[in-house]
Amino acid sequence: MPIFERTNVKHSLLTNQHWIFLSAFFLSAFFLFSAVSWGQEVPAGFDSIFNGRNLDGWYAIATYDPRSLEGMSDVERASRIDAARAKTKEFWRVENGEIVNDGNGPYLTSDRNYGDFELLIEYKTVAGADSGIYLKATPQVQIWDYTDEKKFNIGSNKGSGGLWNNSQGAAGKDPLVLADHPFGQWNKFRIRQLGSRTSVWLNEKLIVDNAIMENYWDKKNHLPLVAKGPIQLQTHGGEIRWRNIFVREIGSEEANQILASAGNEGFESIFNGKDFDGWAGPLENYEVVDGSVRCKAGKGGTIHTKQEYSDFVARLEFKLPPGGNNGLAIRYPGNGDTAYVGMCELQVLDNEHEKFAGKLDDRQYHGSAYGMVAAHRGYQRPTGEWNFQEVTVQGSTIKVELNGTIILNCDLADVTEFMAGSPHPGKDRTSGSFGLAGHSDPVEFRNLAIKQLDQ
User: Fold this and answer.
1) Residue 450, Cβ neighbours under 10 Å: how many?
2) Same domain assignment for residues 245 and 262
3) Are residues 174 and 268 in the same domain?
4) Domain count, the chain
5) What does the pLDDT look like over 244-267, one tens digit per residue?
6) Are 233 and 265 found together in one domain?
7) Cα angle vertex 118, ends 113, 123, to 5°?
8) Distance (Å, whole) CA 197 – CA 331
9) Contact between residue 420 and residue 371 where contact means Cβ atoms under 8 Å apart
10) Could you identify which of 113, 200, 270, 383 might form a hypothetical disulfide with 207, taking C-beta atoms 3.0 to 4.6 angstroms apart as the criterion?
Protein backbone atom coordinates (compact mmCIF):
# COMPACT_ATOMS: atom_id res chain seq x y z
CA MET A 1 0.00 0.00 0.00
CA PRO A 2 1.38 3.45 -0.85
CA ILE A 3 2.55 5.56 2.01
CA PHE A 4 -0.14 8.19 1.51
CA GLU A 5 -2.87 5.51 1.77
CA ARG A 6 -1.47 4.25 5.04
CA THR A 7 -1.39 7.83 6.25
CA ASN A 8 -5.02 8.32 5.24
CA VAL A 9 -6.03 5.18 7.08
CA LYS A 10 -4.19 6.33 10.18
CA HIS A 11 -5.73 9.78 9.84
CA SER A 12 -9.18 8.22 9.49
CA LEU A 13 -8.69 6.14 12.66
CA LEU A 14 -7.56 9.17 14.62
CA THR A 15 -10.51 11.09 13.35
CA ASN A 16 -12.90 8.41 14.60
CA GLN A 17 -11.23 8.42 17.98
CA HIS A 18 -11.49 12.19 18.10
CA TRP A 19 -15.16 11.99 17.24
CA ILE A 20 -15.75 9.50 20.02
CA PHE A 21 -13.87 11.74 22.46
CA LEU A 22 -15.58 14.89 21.26
CA SER A 23 -19.01 13.26 21.38
CA ALA A 24 -18.43 12.17 24.97
CA PHE A 25 -17.13 15.63 25.85
CA PHE A 26 -20.10 17.46 24.37
CA LEU A 27 -22.54 15.00 25.91
CA SER A 28 -20.97 15.57 29.32
CA ALA A 29 -20.96 19.30 28.74
CA PHE A 30 -24.64 19.17 27.77
CA PHE A 31 -25.61 17.43 30.99
CA LEU A 32 -23.36 19.73 33.01
CA PHE A 33 -24.88 22.77 31.36
CA SER A 34 -28.36 21.37 31.91
CA ALA A 35 -27.65 20.77 35.60
CA VAL A 36 -26.26 24.26 36.01
CA SER A 37 -29.16 25.78 34.15
CA TRP A 38 -31.62 23.99 36.46
CA GLY A 39 -30.09 25.28 39.69
CA GLN A 40 -27.39 27.43 41.16
CA GLU A 41 -24.28 26.26 42.96
CA VAL A 42 -24.85 25.31 46.60
CA PRO A 43 -23.84 28.33 48.72
CA ALA A 44 -20.97 27.79 51.15
CA GLY A 45 -22.13 26.32 54.45
CA PHE A 46 -25.51 25.23 53.06
CA ASP A 47 -26.92 21.83 52.12
CA SER A 48 -29.18 21.32 49.14
CA ILE A 49 -32.43 19.64 50.20
CA PHE A 50 -33.82 19.35 46.65
CA ASN A 51 -31.69 17.45 44.15
CA GLY A 52 -33.34 18.90 41.02
CA ARG A 53 -34.30 15.46 39.68
CA ASN A 54 -36.91 13.91 41.97
CA LEU A 55 -38.66 14.30 45.32
CA ASP A 56 -36.25 12.21 47.37
CA GLY A 57 -36.18 13.63 50.89
CA TRP A 58 -39.74 14.94 50.68
CA TYR A 59 -43.28 13.68 51.11
CA ALA A 60 -46.69 15.36 50.86
CA ILE A 61 -48.96 15.22 53.89
CA ALA A 62 -52.12 16.95 55.06
CA THR A 63 -51.43 19.86 57.40
CA TYR A 64 -51.08 18.82 61.04
CA ASP A 65 -50.04 19.98 64.50
CA PRO A 66 -46.45 18.69 64.74
CA ARG A 67 -46.99 17.73 68.37
CA SER A 68 -49.69 15.29 67.27
CA LEU A 69 -47.16 13.50 65.08
CA GLU A 70 -44.59 13.53 67.88
CA GLY A 71 -47.15 11.93 70.18
CA MET A 72 -47.55 8.88 67.97
CA SER A 73 -45.64 5.66 68.43
CA ASP A 74 -42.67 5.17 66.09
CA VAL A 75 -44.62 2.54 64.15
CA GLU A 76 -47.74 4.66 63.83
CA ARG A 77 -45.76 7.73 62.77
CA ALA A 78 -43.75 5.80 60.18
CA SER A 79 -46.94 4.25 58.80
CA ARG A 80 -48.60 7.64 58.37
CA ILE A 81 -45.55 9.11 56.64
CA ASP A 82 -45.14 6.08 54.35
CA ALA A 83 -48.79 6.36 53.30
CA ALA A 84 -48.31 10.05 52.57
CA ARG A 85 -45.11 9.42 50.62
CA ALA A 86 -46.87 6.89 48.40
CA LYS A 87 -49.35 9.54 47.23
CA THR A 88 -46.91 12.42 46.85
CA LYS A 89 -46.52 12.07 43.08
CA GLU A 90 -50.26 12.45 42.60
CA PHE A 91 -49.90 16.15 43.41
CA TRP A 92 -46.23 17.08 43.05
CA ARG A 93 -43.73 16.61 40.24
CA VAL A 94 -40.26 17.72 39.18
CA GLU A 95 -39.91 19.51 35.87
CA ASN A 96 -36.74 21.13 34.49
CA GLY A 97 -35.14 21.17 37.92
CA GLU A 98 -38.22 22.73 39.55
CA ILE A 99 -40.76 21.37 42.02
CA VAL A 100 -44.21 21.98 40.55
CA ASN A 101 -47.69 21.89 42.03
CA ASP A 102 -50.94 23.00 40.39
CA GLY A 103 -52.46 24.39 43.59
CA ASN A 104 -54.01 21.18 44.88
CA GLY A 105 -53.19 18.46 47.36
CA PRO A 106 -51.31 18.16 50.65
CA TYR A 107 -48.18 20.11 51.49
CA LEU A 108 -44.70 18.98 50.51
CA THR A 109 -42.75 18.23 53.67
CA SER A 110 -39.03 17.73 54.30
CA ASP A 111 -37.91 14.44 55.79
CA ARG A 112 -35.52 16.30 58.06
CA ASN A 113 -36.46 18.44 61.03
CA TYR A 114 -34.72 21.72 61.76
CA GLY A 115 -34.18 23.79 64.91
CA ASP A 116 -32.03 26.89 64.37
CA PHE A 117 -31.55 27.30 60.64
CA GLU A 118 -31.33 29.52 57.59
CA LEU A 119 -33.35 28.66 54.48
CA LEU A 120 -32.79 29.89 50.93
CA ILE A 121 -35.59 29.14 48.46
CA GLU A 122 -36.91 30.52 45.18
CA TYR A 123 -40.50 30.42 43.97
CA LYS A 124 -42.58 31.53 41.01
CA THR A 125 -46.36 31.64 41.08
CA VAL A 126 -49.35 32.96 39.17
CA ALA A 127 -52.05 35.57 39.65
CA GLY A 128 -54.70 34.55 42.15
CA ALA A 129 -52.51 31.97 43.85
CA ASP A 130 -52.13 31.79 47.62
CA SER A 131 -49.34 29.80 49.19
CA GLY A 132 -46.70 29.88 51.88
CA ILE A 133 -43.83 28.22 53.70
CA TYR A 134 -44.44 26.40 56.98
CA LEU A 135 -41.57 26.55 59.46
CA LYS A 136 -41.36 23.66 61.92
CA ALA A 137 -44.65 22.47 60.41
CA THR A 138 -46.33 25.71 61.47
CA PRO A 139 -47.94 28.36 59.23
CA GLN A 140 -46.51 30.46 57.78
CA VAL A 141 -44.38 32.78 55.73
CA GLN A 142 -47.06 34.09 53.38
CA ILE A 143 -46.98 34.00 49.57
CA TRP A 144 -49.86 35.49 47.60
CA ASP A 145 -51.07 37.74 44.81
CA TYR A 146 -50.27 41.27 45.96
CA THR A 147 -52.45 42.66 43.15
CA ASP A 148 -55.60 40.74 44.19
CA GLU A 149 -58.00 43.49 45.26
CA LYS A 150 -60.42 40.92 46.71
CA LYS A 151 -57.85 40.23 49.46
CA PHE A 152 -56.69 43.79 50.13
CA ASN A 153 -58.86 43.79 53.25
CA ILE A 154 -56.74 40.98 54.73
CA GLY A 155 -53.41 42.43 53.65
CA SER A 156 -52.53 41.06 50.23
CA ASN A 157 -51.62 44.54 49.01
CA LYS A 158 -48.83 44.62 51.59
CA GLY A 159 -47.07 41.81 49.77
CA SER A 160 -45.63 38.42 50.58
CA GLY A 161 -43.25 37.40 53.34
CA GLY A 162 -45.19 38.26 56.50
CA LEU A 163 -45.98 35.82 59.30
CA TRP A 164 -49.60 35.88 58.30
CA ASN A 165 -50.92 33.70 61.14
CA ASN A 166 -49.51 35.96 63.85
CA SER A 167 -52.10 37.91 65.83
CA GLN A 168 -53.39 41.17 64.42
CA GLY A 169 -50.94 43.93 65.29
CA ALA A 170 -48.19 41.50 66.35
CA ALA A 171 -44.65 42.01 65.09
CA GLY A 172 -44.06 40.18 61.81
CA LYS A 173 -47.75 39.88 60.91
CA ASP A 174 -47.35 42.27 57.96
CA PRO A 175 -44.22 42.62 55.81
CA LEU A 176 -42.18 45.75 56.43
CA VAL A 177 -42.08 46.57 52.71
CA LEU A 178 -43.63 45.29 49.48
CA ALA A 179 -40.90 43.27 47.78
CA ASP A 180 -42.68 40.88 45.38
CA HIS A 181 -41.47 40.62 41.82
CA PRO A 182 -44.07 40.79 39.01
CA PHE A 183 -45.71 37.52 37.99
CA GLY A 184 -43.60 35.47 35.64
CA GLN A 185 -40.41 36.30 37.55
CA TRP A 186 -38.71 34.25 40.25
CA ASN A 187 -38.74 35.46 43.85
CA LYS A 188 -36.09 34.55 46.39
CA PHE A 189 -36.59 34.12 50.13
CA ARG A 190 -33.95 34.08 52.80
CA ILE A 191 -35.53 32.91 56.06
CA ARG A 192 -33.75 32.59 59.41
CA GLN A 193 -35.30 31.04 62.47
CA LEU A 194 -33.72 30.88 65.92
CA GLY A 195 -36.15 29.22 68.29
CA SER A 196 -39.34 31.12 67.45
CA ARG A 197 -37.47 34.29 66.44
CA THR A 198 -37.98 34.66 62.71
CA SER A 199 -36.41 37.00 60.15
CA VAL A 200 -37.40 37.05 56.49
CA TRP A 201 -35.79 38.68 53.45
CA LEU A 202 -37.65 38.70 50.13
CA ASN A 203 -35.65 39.61 47.04
CA GLU A 204 -32.88 40.99 49.29
CA LYS A 205 -35.28 43.24 51.27
CA LEU A 206 -35.90 42.74 55.00
CA ILE A 207 -39.56 41.80 55.43
CA VAL A 208 -39.73 40.43 59.00
CA ASP A 209 -37.19 41.52 61.60
CA ASN A 210 -36.56 39.02 64.40
CA ALA A 211 -40.26 38.58 65.24
CA ILE A 212 -41.68 35.79 67.38
CA MET A 213 -43.58 33.36 65.16
CA GLU A 214 -46.74 32.45 67.04
CA ASN A 215 -47.87 28.85 67.31
CA TYR A 216 -50.95 28.67 65.09
CA TRP A 217 -51.83 25.30 66.61
CA ASP A 218 -52.25 26.55 70.19
CA LYS A 219 -52.57 30.31 70.49
CA LYS A 220 -55.01 30.06 73.39
CA ASN A 221 -52.46 28.53 75.76
CA HIS A 222 -49.48 30.42 74.26
CA LEU A 223 -47.69 27.15 73.59
CA PRO A 224 -44.49 27.92 71.65
CA LEU A 225 -43.36 26.32 68.41
CA VAL A 226 -41.83 22.88 68.65
CA ALA A 227 -38.07 22.96 69.12
CA LYS A 228 -37.53 21.18 65.80
CA GLY A 229 -39.78 20.50 62.85
CA PRO A 230 -39.88 20.12 59.08
CA ILE A 231 -40.08 22.71 56.33
CA GLN A 232 -43.35 22.51 54.38
CA LEU A 233 -44.30 24.02 51.04
CA GLN A 234 -47.93 25.06 51.04
CA THR A 235 -50.07 25.13 47.94
CA HIS A 236 -53.57 26.25 47.07
CA GLY A 237 -55.21 28.56 44.59
CA GLY A 238 -52.86 28.20 41.62
CA GLU A 239 -49.64 26.82 40.22
CA ILE A 240 -46.45 27.40 42.13
CA ARG A 241 -42.89 26.37 41.30
CA TRP A 242 -39.93 26.03 43.65
CA ARG A 243 -36.20 25.69 43.03
CA ASN A 244 -32.77 26.18 44.62
CA ILE A 245 -33.72 25.04 48.13
CA PHE A 246 -30.80 25.22 50.54
CA VAL A 247 -30.61 24.97 54.34
CA ARG A 248 -27.85 25.87 56.78
CA GLU A 249 -28.15 24.72 60.38
CA ILE A 250 -26.97 27.41 62.81
CA GLY A 251 -24.78 26.48 65.78
CA SER A 252 -25.35 27.70 69.31
CA GLU A 253 -22.52 30.25 69.39
CA GLU A 254 -23.70 31.97 66.22
CA ALA A 255 -27.33 31.79 67.32
CA ASN A 256 -26.50 33.41 70.66
CA GLN A 257 -24.61 36.23 68.96
CA ILE A 258 -27.50 36.94 66.61
CA LEU A 259 -30.06 36.89 69.41
CA ALA A 260 -27.92 39.16 71.59
CA SER A 261 -27.39 41.69 68.79
CA ALA A 262 -31.11 42.15 68.11
CA GLY A 263 -32.76 45.00 69.98
CA ASN A 264 -29.76 45.53 72.23
CA GLU A 265 -30.17 49.28 72.60
CA GLY A 266 -30.32 50.54 76.16
CA PHE A 267 -28.69 47.54 77.83
CA GLU A 268 -25.91 48.17 80.35
CA SER A 269 -23.44 45.53 81.47
CA ILE A 270 -23.76 44.50 85.13
CA PHE A 271 -20.67 42.25 85.17
CA ASN A 272 -17.33 43.47 83.84
CA GLY A 273 -15.85 40.01 83.24
CA LYS A 274 -12.86 40.72 85.53
CA ASP A 275 -14.08 41.04 89.12
CA PHE A 276 -17.18 41.52 91.26
CA ASP A 277 -17.24 45.29 91.24
CA GLY A 278 -20.87 46.34 91.79
CA TRP A 279 -21.86 43.02 93.39
CA ALA A 280 -22.50 41.90 96.95
CA GLY A 281 -23.27 38.72 98.88
CA PRO A 282 -21.08 35.62 99.41
CA LEU A 283 -18.67 36.57 96.64
CA GLU A 284 -16.02 34.19 97.99
CA ASN A 285 -18.20 31.31 96.75
CA TYR A 286 -17.87 32.45 93.14
CA GLU A 287 -14.97 32.94 90.73
CA VAL A 288 -14.25 34.73 87.47
CA VAL A 289 -13.10 32.36 84.71
CA ASP A 290 -12.37 33.53 81.16
CA GLY A 291 -14.75 36.46 81.44
CA SER A 292 -17.58 34.49 83.01
CA VAL A 293 -18.75 34.20 86.60
CA ARG A 294 -18.90 30.67 87.98
CA CYS A 295 -20.21 29.25 91.19
CA LYS A 296 -17.49 27.20 92.89
CA ALA A 297 -18.17 23.50 93.16
CA GLY A 298 -19.63 22.68 96.57
CA LYS A 299 -20.38 26.35 97.27
CA GLY A 300 -23.41 28.51 96.75
CA GLY A 301 -25.58 31.31 98.03
CA THR A 302 -27.02 34.32 96.24
CA ILE A 303 -24.71 37.02 94.94
CA HIS A 304 -26.49 40.12 93.70
CA THR A 305 -26.10 43.56 92.22
CA LYS A 306 -25.73 46.44 94.64
CA GLN A 307 -28.12 48.38 92.45
CA GLU A 308 -31.82 47.68 92.74
CA TYR A 309 -34.23 47.44 89.83
CA SER A 310 -37.98 47.73 89.47
CA ASP A 311 -39.08 47.00 85.88
CA PHE A 312 -36.30 45.76 83.62
CA VAL A 313 -35.11 43.40 80.91
CA ALA A 314 -32.09 41.23 81.70
CA ARG A 315 -29.98 39.40 79.14
CA LEU A 316 -27.33 36.79 79.82
CA GLU A 317 -25.76 33.55 78.70
CA PHE A 318 -25.45 30.51 80.92
CA LYS A 319 -23.74 27.14 80.68
CA LEU A 320 -24.71 24.14 82.77
CA PRO A 321 -22.49 21.24 83.78
CA PRO A 322 -24.20 17.83 83.90
CA GLY A 323 -26.90 18.02 86.56
CA GLY A 324 -26.12 21.68 87.26
CA ASN A 325 -28.45 23.79 89.41
CA ASN A 326 -28.57 27.56 89.91
CA GLY A 327 -31.12 30.34 89.60
CA LEU A 328 -31.76 33.98 88.77
CA ALA A 329 -32.76 36.10 91.75
CA ILE A 330 -35.46 38.59 90.76
CA ARG A 331 -36.06 41.67 92.93
CA TYR A 332 -33.98 40.15 95.70
CA PRO A 333 -33.91 42.03 99.05
CA GLY A 334 -30.27 41.14 99.75
CA ASN A 335 -30.70 38.31 102.23
CA GLY A 336 -32.73 35.17 102.71
CA ASP A 337 -33.89 32.51 100.26
CA THR A 338 -34.63 34.39 97.05
CA ALA A 339 -37.18 31.79 95.92
CA TYR A 340 -39.42 32.97 98.75
CA VAL A 341 -38.31 36.42 99.93
CA GLY A 342 -37.55 37.83 96.49
CA MET A 343 -40.14 38.26 93.76
CA CYS A 344 -39.03 34.83 92.56
CA GLU A 345 -36.14 32.62 91.63
CA LEU A 346 -36.09 31.64 87.98
CA GLN A 347 -34.72 28.14 87.74
CA VAL A 348 -31.44 27.48 85.91
CA LEU A 349 -31.27 23.72 85.81
CA ASP A 350 -30.12 20.71 83.80
CA ASN A 351 -33.49 19.13 84.44
CA GLU A 352 -32.93 16.29 81.94
CA HIS A 353 -30.14 14.80 84.05
CA GLU A 354 -30.85 11.33 85.34
CA LYS A 355 -30.52 12.43 88.97
CA PHE A 356 -33.70 14.49 88.61
CA ALA A 357 -35.74 11.80 86.82
CA GLY A 358 -39.20 11.55 88.37
CA LYS A 359 -38.28 13.89 91.24
CA LEU A 360 -39.27 17.34 89.98
CA ASP A 361 -42.48 19.27 90.31
CA ASP A 362 -43.41 20.99 87.02
CA ARG A 363 -42.60 24.30 88.73
CA GLN A 364 -38.97 23.26 89.27
CA TYR A 365 -37.91 22.86 85.63
CA HIS A 366 -35.62 25.34 83.91
CA GLY A 367 -37.09 28.80 83.46
CA SER A 368 -39.91 28.25 85.93
CA ALA A 369 -40.81 30.77 88.60
CA TYR A 370 -39.68 28.36 91.29
CA GLY A 371 -42.58 26.73 93.08
CA MET A 372 -45.17 29.00 91.42
CA VAL A 373 -45.43 28.78 87.61
CA ALA A 374 -44.05 26.09 85.30
CA ALA A 375 -42.08 26.94 82.15
CA HIS A 376 -42.34 25.13 78.83
CA ARG A 377 -39.66 22.50 78.44
CA GLY A 378 -37.40 21.19 75.70
CA TYR A 379 -35.66 24.39 74.54
CA GLN A 380 -32.27 24.21 76.27
CA ARG A 381 -29.15 23.56 74.26
CA PRO A 382 -27.18 20.36 74.95
CA THR A 383 -25.52 20.34 78.35
CA GLY A 384 -22.14 22.06 78.18
CA GLU A 385 -23.19 24.61 75.51
CA TRP A 386 -23.97 28.27 76.16
CA ASN A 387 -27.63 29.28 76.21
CA PHE A 388 -29.00 32.77 75.62
CA GLN A 389 -31.77 33.95 77.93
CA GLU A 390 -33.79 37.14 78.24
CA VAL A 391 -35.98 37.98 81.23
CA THR A 392 -38.55 40.78 81.20
CA VAL A 393 -40.03 41.96 84.52
CA GLN A 394 -42.86 44.48 84.46
CA GLY A 395 -45.05 45.00 87.48
CA SER A 396 -46.17 41.55 88.61
CA THR A 397 -45.46 39.90 85.24
CA ILE A 398 -42.43 37.89 84.19
CA LYS A 399 -41.50 36.67 80.71
CA VAL A 400 -38.60 34.32 80.04
CA GLU A 401 -37.25 33.79 76.54
CA LEU A 402 -34.75 30.96 76.13
CA ASN A 403 -32.74 30.64 72.90
CA GLY A 404 -35.37 32.58 70.99
CA THR A 405 -38.45 30.82 72.42
CA ILE A 406 -40.75 32.23 75.10
CA ILE A 407 -40.93 29.52 77.76
CA LEU A 408 -42.64 31.49 80.54
CA ASN A 409 -45.09 34.38 80.41
CA CYS A 410 -47.04 34.81 83.61
CA ASP A 411 -48.51 37.20 86.15
CA LEU A 412 -47.44 36.28 89.66
CA ALA A 413 -50.36 38.29 91.04
CA ASP A 414 -52.59 35.48 89.79
CA VAL A 415 -50.72 32.71 91.61
CA THR A 416 -52.62 31.25 94.54
CA GLU A 417 -51.25 27.69 94.67
CA PHE A 418 -47.67 26.98 95.61
CA MET A 419 -45.46 23.91 95.46
CA ALA A 420 -45.69 21.94 98.72
CA GLY A 421 -48.06 24.59 100.01
CA SER A 422 -45.10 26.87 100.83
CA PRO A 423 -46.08 30.57 100.55
CA HIS A 424 -43.94 33.06 98.63
CA PRO A 425 -44.28 36.29 100.60
CA GLY A 426 -41.84 38.13 98.35
CA LYS A 427 -43.71 37.59 95.08
CA ASP A 428 -45.39 40.99 95.30
CA ARG A 429 -42.13 42.93 95.71
CA THR A 430 -41.88 45.91 93.34
CA SER A 431 -38.08 46.35 93.38
CA GLY A 432 -34.87 44.67 94.44
CA SER A 433 -31.50 43.40 93.23
CA PHE A 434 -30.75 41.01 90.41
CA GLY A 435 -28.68 38.01 91.41
CA LEU A 436 -27.37 34.48 90.88
CA ALA A 437 -28.57 31.82 93.32
CA GLY A 438 -25.94 29.10 93.40
CA HIS A 439 -26.62 25.56 94.60
CA SER A 440 -23.17 23.95 94.84
CA ASP A 441 -22.69 23.36 91.09
CA PRO A 442 -20.18 25.13 88.78
CA VAL A 443 -22.80 26.84 86.60
CA GLU A 444 -21.35 29.69 84.51
CA PHE A 445 -22.80 33.03 83.41
CA ARG A 446 -21.49 35.67 81.02
CA ASN A 447 -22.55 38.78 79.12
CA LEU A 448 -24.96 39.86 81.85
CA ALA A 449 -26.74 43.12 81.01
CA ILE A 450 -29.86 44.94 82.14
CA LYS A 451 -32.08 47.57 80.52
CA GLN A 452 -34.29 49.49 82.92
CA LEU A 453 -37.82 50.11 81.72
CA ASP A 454 -39.73 53.34 82.17
CA GLN A 455 -42.09 53.29 85.09
Assistant:
1) 21
2) no
3) no
4) 2
5) 999 999 999 999 999 999 999 999
6) no
7) 95
8) 28
9) yes
10) 200
